[in-house]
């Protein structure tokens, strides 16, 4: 069991890609203040059927989220109390396949580019444009992450399929070789039996 304490902080996000061995479970912890909105997103990139168990608990051990054998999912909640929240990924149902799991745990909202404190006027046109660009760039980053994960998952599937095709080709070649050798010996035995029979009749 791996116990990893994530760095706390308002408006923070933790993105981690890690290996989850077979029959293993890994847990992560985050200190969250009451009333903070949080989002947990995860996706299995490689391994087996690309599924994993996920469980999220509050400081009192109450289960807030629990899913079995999920390939990917997203869960948003608001912390009901101060304390350390725990979320775990389990591959205990798998006996020989390890997984590669990505998750993004967002805590709180990003601080505004232009704080409203000590302001006596609305945002200027340039400041509004900066805010719009900032939001657009965040969307671009999210899309890039999503497509990067899809690309990694697709590459893993392609490599797995290529390995299976290679093994299947080798197996077919061996079967053809065995069948060919068997046919040669079978035909040879037919001619040997005929030669022996003819010799006996002539004598």
TrEMBL record:
Intracellular or extracellular location(s): Cytoplasmic vesicle, COPI-coated vesicle membrane; Cytoplasmic vesicle, COPII-coated vesicle membrane; Endoplasmic reticulum membrane; Endoplasmic reticulum-Golgi intermediate compartment membrane
One of the GO BP terms on file: protein transport
UniProt keyword Acyltransferase present: no
SMART domains: EMP24_GP25L
Topology within the bilayer: Single-pass type I membrane protein
Segments forming domain GOLD: 25-107
Family: Belongs to the EMP24/GP25L family.
Protein name: Transmembrane emp24 domain-containing protein 7
Native source organism of the sequence: Chinchilla lanigera (Long-tailed chinchilla)
Gene name as annotated: TMED7
């Amino acid at each position: 069991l791996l116990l990893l304490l994530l760095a706390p902080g308002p408006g923070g996000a933790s993105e981690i890609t890690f290996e989850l061995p077979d029959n293993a479970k890994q847990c992560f912890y985050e200190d969250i203040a009451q009333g903070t909105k949080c989002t947990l997103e995860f996706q299995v990139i490689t391994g087996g059927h690309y599924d994993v168990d996920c469980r999220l608990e509050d400081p009192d051990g109450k289960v807030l989220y629990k899913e079995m054998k999920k390939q990917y999912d997203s869960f948003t909640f608001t912390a009901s109390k101060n304390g350390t929240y725990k979320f775990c990924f389990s591959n205990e149902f798998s006996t020989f396949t390890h997984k590669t799991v990505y998750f993004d745990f967002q805590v709180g909202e990003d601080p505004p580019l232009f704080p409203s404190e000590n302001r006596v006027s609305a945002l200027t046109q340039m400041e509004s444009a900066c805010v719009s660009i900032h939001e657009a760039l965040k969307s671009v980053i999210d899309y890039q992450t999503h497509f990067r994960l899809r690309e990694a998952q697709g590459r893993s599937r392609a490599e797995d399929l290529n390995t299976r095709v290679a093994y299947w080709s080798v197996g077919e070649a061996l079967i053809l070789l065995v069948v060919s050798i068997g046919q040669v010996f079978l035909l040879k035995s037919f001619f040997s039996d005929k030669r022996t029979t003819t010799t006996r009749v002539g004598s």
